Amino acid sequence: MTAAAGTSIWRDLIHKPFFWGIVAIAALLALNVLKDPTYLALTINPNNGNLVGNLIDILRQAAPVMMIAIGMSLVIATGGIDLSVGSLMAVSGAVAMEFLSAAGDSGSVGAALGAIGLALVITGILGAVNGILVAYVGLQPFIATLVLMLAGRGIAKVITGGQNTTASNDPFRWIANGFVIGIPVVFILAVLLVLVVGWVVRRSALGLMIEAIGINPRASRMAGIKPKGLLLTTYILSGILAGIAGIMSVGSVMTVDISRTGYQLELDAILAVVIGGASLAGGKFSLSGAFVGALLIATLDKTVLYLGISSSATPAFKAIVIVALCLLQSERVRSWFRRRRKAPPAEQLIAKEEVTA
For residue 65, what pLDDT is reported? Predict the structure, then answer.
């Protein structure tokens, strides 16, 4: 490879938003290693042979954020937003825990599958409600999904009778706590779902049509695209993915806490999408970028806890990291630095002015 080719590849790479997300993840891990050189160490649990370590915890914690970030990416690409994903996680967890609690068989695979299926059907229906309000009723996405964001936890409370429901089912718990080849099952499932969704939207015309709606709904309609059906589909998919995230969250402790499950995770999902390079104005999305963004959010949360930062200062710490990352991604900021670097020294400017005079 020639030097010119290497320079071109490097230039293309730094212009990809997810690259700076990877850089930020590496920087946070390096910060943790400075505090504890064994931070990245992985050990094997002698009781079950599974890998144990901070990296494993990050992968497990990132999985639910990945799910809602992928759904959020598709919704934002249409020019909308889904503020209800956190509440839908609570609804999904409430449905699953109530179903398993009523089933009472702690070893039944059928009960686990029934709980998962029912939870995803319910969240898919609620996602469809968002889609209908946006596509057919004509409400602004912010308002339509804000309604379900507020009502969703109320629905979850009705399902559980206002109590934190606990259940026992080993196959269901395995989804969140199990391992395959030492890797958390929940992370493997998240990666597989990201790959499936990415393959569907990028190997078909679906992704282009979603982006077309976000760029110009009227022009896309004149080109033969049916925006209403696609909008409905994206919100349903966002609801289902939020349901999967809810199952992942409650499965780790087999308890749904209505007030805490999925709390403010819609904000983390939006941040992950923005970190991944999507435009909040619509018309552009990157599932790989959202994947990296979710990993960054999980790494950041783990770093905040590991460094012992006060919970009251946590939002400020996260905000500083996110703002710095967004500035690094900004083409306008990078152009400004390039102009400053290429600008001639002040002495040369003065000498040039004297010669000209």
Answer: 93
Q: Are 61 and 302 in contact (CB under 8 A)?
A: yes
Paired sense of beta strands 255-256 and 43-44, if any: unpaired
Two structure tokens written together for 17: 């938003």
**220-227 contacts at long range (C-beta below 8 A, 24 or more positions apart):** 227/78, 227/135
* Residue found under tokens 């710490």: 317
Helix extents (H) in 203-282: 206-215, 217-222, 227-251, 265-275
CA dist 335 and 92 (Å) reads 45
Q: State phi, psi for 107 to the nearest 5 degrees.
A: -115, 10
Report which DSSP code applies to 52: E
- Distance between CA atoms of residues 242 and 262, nearest Å: 9
Rounded to an integer, what distance in angstroms lies between the CA atom of residue 15 and that of residue 143? 34
Task: Return the sign of the alpha-carbon dihedral for residues 293, 297, 299, 304.
Answer: positive
| CA 251 vs CA 96, 140, 247, 266: distances in Å | 9, 34, 6, 19
Query: Are the CB atoms for 196 and 286 separated by under 8 Å?
Result: no
Q: Residue 203 is encoded by which pair of tokens?
A: 């190997």
Give dist(CA 192, CA 248) in Å, integer.
14
| Distance (Å, whole) CA 70 – CA 263 | 18
Residues 40/33, Cβ–Cβ less than 8 Å: yes
* Tokens found for residue 220: 């896309």
DSSP state of 256: E
Indicate the residue type of 159: I
pTM of the model: 0.86
What is the model's pLDDT at position 354? 47
d(CA 127, CA 68): 12
What pLDDT score was predicted for residue 4?
53
Q: Are the CB atoms for 43 and 52 separated by under 8 Å?
A: yes
Judging by DSSP bridges, how do beta strands 183-184 and 179-180 pair with one another?
A: antiparallel
With a cut of 50, list the residues of the chain below it in pLDDT.
Answer: 347-352, 354-355, 357
